[in-house]
Amino acid sequence: MADKTGEGDSGDFLGDGESSEDQQHIPHPWPYLREMFEIAGSKKDSWRMYCKLCLPKRHELLAFKNSPSNLKKHVERKHRNQLERYTNLTSKRLAAPDEGPASKQPKLWETKRVSQASVDKVIMNFVIQGLHPLSVVEQQGFQALVLHLQPDVSVMSRGSVKNRVEKAALVMKNNLKAALGKIEFIATTTDCWTSHRRSFIGVTAHWLEPQTLQRQCAALACKQLKGPHTFSVLASALNEIHTEFNIREKITRTTTDNGSNFVKAFRVYGHVDENNNLAPAAESGKVDNDEEEEDEETENADVEFVEAGAILDEDDCLEYQLPKHHRCACHLLNLVSTVDVSEANISSTVYKRLSCSSFAKIIRISREQGEGAIAAVCSTLKIPMFSPVELAFLAEYVKTMSPVAKALDLLQGESSVQMGWLVPTITLLKAKLQHLHISVKFCGPLVDALLSGLEKRFGQMLTDPELIAAAILVPKFKTCWTSNKCILKLGLDYIKSHLKEQAVENQGETSHSSEEDDFFSAIKQTPGSQENAKQLETYLGCPGDAMGVLKSFPTVFNLSVRLNTPLPASAACERLFSTAGLIFTPKRARVDSRNFENQLLLKLNGGFC
After folding, report:
1. Which residues pair with 203 in a beta bridge?
2. Residues 528, 511 contacting (CB under 8 angstroms)
3. What distance, in Å, lies between the first and last C-alpha atoms of the chain?
4. Sign of CA dihedral 202, 563, 467, 425
5. Which residue of 96, 322, 407, 474 sits 20 to 30 Å from the alpha carbon of 441, by its own alpha carbon?
């Protein structure tokens, strides 16, 4: 009977009934020891080995699969005169690395050695991707972990990590600038964020990859603002960021919320042309300070008194240059759903009574009892049960607000949404609400309030030729999203005029004509303009609805990219602030603003590091 033993830390002995693999089908885990030990099988995490030196007696022992240390202990105890032989065989293992398959787990003496530079790089990645404070590298537990895994390396100090973060941020920004330099059209979103009594302005950039038309994005800045957030302060900060990345002339639109400071900043310093809805400050219809009436009883009529401070502070609106402005569609929809719907309570006493009684019960249940069965909760709290009319009202309310919630969810997308989605989404939302108006019994005033709010806040956008053109140049929509021929004509006329201008510009680059010809070029039908018009007609008749269809129509493609690069909502900037909040915690409220921005941008712009 075989002598089955375990030595050292080998574990339990094998029982007579335990299964094992056939010896001839198991490769030897340590081929260099084959002349002294042979494999007999395996058990869990150990090899069953038998000693050839003990023959004719069959002596089996267990050895962990990642180490032959038990075999050496057996030699030391039973065959001391063979210890030198065992040592020589072990030393020869490096000379024949391909002699046999190695065990799955690395051996202790074959632990991979890594360089100090590799360790520093991994530590940097750990700090940035995990949004950890830089002081984590000085924590005893972290240092013990690194040194336990790699005893021969050292852990960077907090100051070293900060320096490396600054250098990495500089490299990232240079790479981002190089990438943006190759892009023709760029859009941005911006917003302000306040946390722990400190304020920041965030800016994100978005563009369509020319080859794949895939949406790309990057975080440009999250800079601290000093003092009040006046319109001039915001304009200065945005102008500085745009200039830093050399994109001021490439930005097609900037999307912000509806804060009065942002609105005024773009009204005063924003780009204005015949297609822009925003008017210059002088034509806004609002005057900040009423002009004082001229005093008729002036004794010194020959002397004109001038306020020196007014001249020194006079702003000619040329100090900063901002791109076109777009108000966040999601913010506008939120205002429609919260502020404008209050008109329903004014227009209908029945709706007001039902909404107040229904929502009052829901609020009380959720506040005191949480979610659960409405009937059971009402019974437990001894409050009036929902009447059948109130339940019908709630069902109608959900049915009415569902299209609004769906539209908001669509427009706040980033990867697959373009500016061309805005007008079709709001147009179809209005159509859905108008259709609901026919079937609702209690929520008619709510539908009216929603439609009125949409018209008030989106009416100007729905007739903007540029936004309509953007929708037509999205293959998914083209002209099928509305039956209003007047609306479609606005967009088509915009497209045709810009395609014609593009043809004239291309002809001017390839030919040299007289000043007289240049003057009358607007009324000439050049071959290029005819070709562009043909491309538009072919595009509109093309059945495909994927963005790749545009590649077959180069001039239409170029115009579509320019119009659809902007985003209809500023949700991307809100996501930037969500990540920023994970860094700017109460315990890190005093973090240096530059270090904070560097760590945030490195986290969000990993593809440019």
Report:
1. 190, 221
2. no
3. 66
4. negative
5. 407
